Amino acid sequence: CYLVLSFFFLPGIEFTPIAGGLLHYLQGFLLNNEILTEFEMVHFVLLDEIATKHSGLHIRLFKMLCELYDRQSKSQQPAEMIIAKQRSIIDRFVHLLSVGFALPVVEKINKMFQEGQIDVSLARYFAIDVLDIIEPPYSEEFIETFLPMVLNREIFDKLTMIKVPAATQFIQDITTETVGSNDEVEFNTNEVLSELNISD
């Protein structure tokens, strides 16, 4: 059934009306209060295709993912199952970020962490995935939003910083990063790394 759905919609997903209708269907199906919906790979494929091809649907997709994540948090399933489902949703957030919807996604994850709505392991999972796909130059807004996650000792402790060199590289990159206004972003790498207790 799911494969038929995928084969039927993928050829037409290039067209906004079809993509919008598909998103509406997926939203109704995945957020159905009457049944406990299990995620299938085809759901993720279709959502990612919509995100990739239709920037005009990013806001709707983002709101749907936020609601879907919150729904898992209220689930009565075992904790490991909830975490696994939330990780799948985090993957969709990362993909949405990768196709241009960066600031709202980072702001959402950062806010959830600050308010205790996301497990630290998932916040770390998100941040590491983001570090793997981003590269300079960075906007000032992105730095202001994402840097606090990288500097958070609970998310990036000493061991994580050692295992994830992209985190240190990101900090080093922004010390010399010039943003749109041509103002130098003022961060002292040595002080930051020393504060994280990972400097030599």
From TrEMBL:
One of its GO terms (cellular component) is NELF complex. The keyword Aminoacyl-tRNA synthetase does not apply. Its main location: nucleus. The keyword Signal applies. It is found in: Nucleus. GO terms for biological process: negative regulation of transcription elongation by RNA polymerase II. Residues 1-15 form the signal peptide. It comes from the Eukaryota. GO terms for molecular function: RNA binding. Keywords: Nucleus, Repressor, Signal, Transcription, Transcription regulation. Belongs to the NELF-D family. This is CCR4-NOT transcription complex subunit 11. It comes from Brugia pahangi.
